[in-house]
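Notes, p. 3: input format for complexes.
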Amino acid sequence: MNAPVLVINCGSSSIKYALIDSDPQAPRLAGLAERLGGNDALLKGKNSDGESFTQPLPNADHTQALNAILERLEGRLPVAVGHRIVHGGEHFTQAALIDDSVIEAIETTAALAPLHNPANLAGIAATQKVFPTLPQVAVFDTAFHQTLPPQAYRYALPETLYTEHRIRRYGFHGTSHAYVSQRASELSSCGAGGWLTAHLGNGCSTSAVWNNQSQDTSMGLTPLEGLVMGTRSGDVDPGLHAHLHRQLGWSLDQIDTVLNKESGLLGLSGLTNDMREIETQALSGHAGAKLALEVFCYRIAKSLAALSCALPQLDGIIFTGGIGENSPTVRHRVLNLLPHFGFALDGEANEATTRGKEGKLDSANHTGPEVWVIPTDEEGRIAMETRHCVEALT
Ligand code: ADP
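Output follows (394 residues plus adenosine-5'-diphosphate):
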C-alpha cells in the first residue's frame, strides 16, 4: 500500500494532521487547525513546496476544519486515516480498525482520560463524515505498555480497585517509546536488547524496553505520574492531596489544576515551562531556573536507574522529545548522575546533536551501554501501524 495515510491527532479545540507516504523520505503535508469553535479559529501548515500557509476558519467546528484540511492535501487522497487515541485501557494491545465496538470501548475508557478520549472520539466522528469510505484505525498511546508485567502495572491498593475499576498503571507516549526503541534496535549492533528510553518534551516519560516490548514506564494511571514535566509535578507524596485539602481547604479540582498546570518546570522556576528559557536563565544565575534544571535532571536519572531493574541487561539509553533531542545540557547532566552505568558521553558529539539529528553519542572505543539521540516520529509510527492494520484485512 504506497498511497498516503492521513494521521489525525484531535484535541477538544484542535486537529493536528499529517499526510504520510509509505516512503519515509517522501515529504509530508502537515499542519494544525486550532482554536476551533472560536471566531479566531485558523488552519496553518506547509504545502509540498515547503511554503507556510495560514487560513482563517472563523467559528469552524471539527468537521469544517477537516474539510479545509482535505482542500490542503493537494489532491493526494489518503487510503486510510490513523487516529492518535490517548487511552485504550486494557482493551487494546495494538492498533485497531475502527468499528462500533472499538468506539464503544474508547467511550468506556473515557473515564480514565476525560480530557482526551472524548476529543479523540469527536475527531473520529468528524473524519467519518468527511471520509465516509476510508478505513479508520485507532492507534493508542497506552497500547505499547500493555506488555508490562503485573509487578510493574499494579499499585499496592485493595484488589477491587483494580478488578472493578481498572485502577492500575497504563503508561503513555507509547508510540514514541516504541518508535525510538525500534529505531535503535535497527541502528545499533546491540539489536533489540535492553533499552532505556527518555521522552522529554512538554510531557516527559521514561520506559524500559526489552526485545521491543515495554517492561515498565514512568507514567501510570494518568500522564501525571513520574518525571517532572513542563507544568506537571510528576510524582508527589500520595498524602499530598489529603494534606492540601485538610490544611488549606483546597478542592480536588484546585489540587488537580495545580499539579497539572502550575507545577513542574514552571512551578519550580517561577518563570516558565520552556526548557530553553530555563537553561538561559539558569546560566545567568536565576535561582529558580537552576533549581528547576537540577530537579528535572535528577528525577530523570532516578527514574532511569529505577527502570533498569526491569531489564535483564542494559544495552543503551535513548533520548528523544523536544528536550531530549535538543538539549546537550540535560543529556550531560542526566548521564553525569548515572556514573555506575558505565556510559561514556562524547562531549563534542553531544553538543553537535540537536535540531532533529539522529546519532550515537559515545566516545571512541567505548564498550559499555550506548547513548543515542533519536528524534521521535509519533506520526510516522501511527501511519505505519495504520498501514499494517489495514493490510492485515486484505
Ligand atoms: P510536546 O510534548 O508538546 O510535543 P516538544 O517535544 O516539542 O513538546 O518539547 C517541548 C520542549 O522542548 C520545551 O520545553 C522546549 O523548551 C524544549 N526545547 C526545544 N528546543 C530546545 C533546545 N534547543 N534546548 C532546550 N530545550 C529545547
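The chain has a mean pLDDT of 95.
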